[in-house]
Amino acid sequence: MFTRSIMSLAFSTEKQVAISAVRRACSLTASVFNRLVKSETSTKDDKSPVTVADYSAQAVISTMLAHAFPADSIVGEEDSSDLRAESGSDLRSRVIELANEALTADLALGDNAEWGIGPGQAKSPEQLLDAIDRGNFAGGRHGRMWTIDPIDGTKGFLRGEQYAVCVSLIVDAQVQLGVIGCPNLPVDPSKPDGDKGSLFVAVRGQGAHQMTLSGADPAPLTIPTFSLDELNLLESVESAHASHSFHDNVASNLGLTKPPTRMDSQAKYCALARGDGGVYIRMLTNSSYREKIWDHAPGVVLVEEAGGVISDFRGQPLDFGAGRTLGENLGILATGKKVYPSVLEAVKKVLSEQKSNV
Ligand SMILES: Nc1ncnc2c1ncn2[C@@H]1O[C@H](COP(=O)(O)O)[C@@H](OP(=O)(O)O)[C@H]1O
Ligand SMILES: [Mg+2]
Ligand SMILES: [Mg+2]
Ligand SMILES: [Mg+2]
């Protein structure tokens, strides 16, 4: 009895802080989208776009996590070097202003002023830049670390399509908690023009849930038991991020008739978890690219808690202990338990055909 009540409380504060942080970051990103100007988008060294919203959302989430869990490490996508540069002063001012606007907004239900939020809790520029850089942790196999992807799918965000604010907690290389906020995702997939703004929360051993961004209508998620002829693939919109042609070959191999759904960000994992698409698939386009842990950690626990399976193309679990990237994993495949063996077999077949054609 005693053990059970302890178990049921596992990660409850972590969950509440992560939800609260993702919610604040989602209001920030949504309001920046409405006011976004081109000059607030820059290009990082790897040629990916980063906006004023990516930096300020990371500052907000990291500030809250550091207040609530000062001993925990953070692996965050962004760092402040461009903001600290001479040329970054305009961008820096906007980031500081937006982050403080989000941090000092009124407390909502479930919020706690001890997390560094609420009226009067504005931070100095240095504190906010340091909060962004708290995300510089190198990752590793032991201890607690959070991942932050302040905007996953920045390209989708800029197009006004799907993007997600993503936070996870990893303990000894196992993802224990994932929170994904999708401001542009319809609450009800059967009503694409209905209300938008969905929040997905999963804690290991406690199930996966969807609710609105404000926390209304929480509902447990279970991946339906699809048969092969009902499946469709969920893949990245960006052909530079994932090989659409490889995915097409897997679809033909499986005899799928439904076209793939292209969607930016970890919203794909959310769609899979609620049965709005049958298989998340992601084949590298560039063999030197390594998947980032913050792009997948929340999705892993969400899919597993919704009753699905996720692995690489060799059937190996994704390795979150290898640093900031997934290390030796090749490809990503997530789907329902019943069809997983057939889909993995098809993926392996296409992989071996590809090798024999080289
Ligand atoms: N060449 C590449 N191959 C695979 N993923 C890539 C990539 N370049 C960027 N990405 C990642 O793809 C993520 C978006 O996922 P998706 O393609 O499913 O929408 C990006 O996240 P950010 O937008 O957070 O930078 C980025 O980390
Ligand atoms: Mg990015
Ligand atoms: Mg990302
Ligand atoms: Mg990002």
TrEMBL record:
The keyword Magnesium applies. Keywords: Hydrolase, Magnesium, Metal-binding. Its cofactor is Mg(2+). Its EC number is 3.1.3.7. It catalyses: adenosine 2',5'-bisphosphate + H2O = AMP + phosphate; 3'-phosphoadenylyl sulfate + H2O = adenosine 5'-phosphosulfate + phosphate; adenosine 3',5'-bisphosphate + H2O = AMP + phosphate. It comes from the Eukaryota. It is an enzyme of class 3 (hydrolase). It holds the Pfam family Inositol_P. Belongs to the inositol monophosphatase superfamily. This is 3'(2'),5'-bisphosphate nucleotidase. It comes from Hohenbuehelia grisea. The lineage of its organism: Eukaryota, Fungi, Dikarya, Basidiomycota, Agaricomycotina.
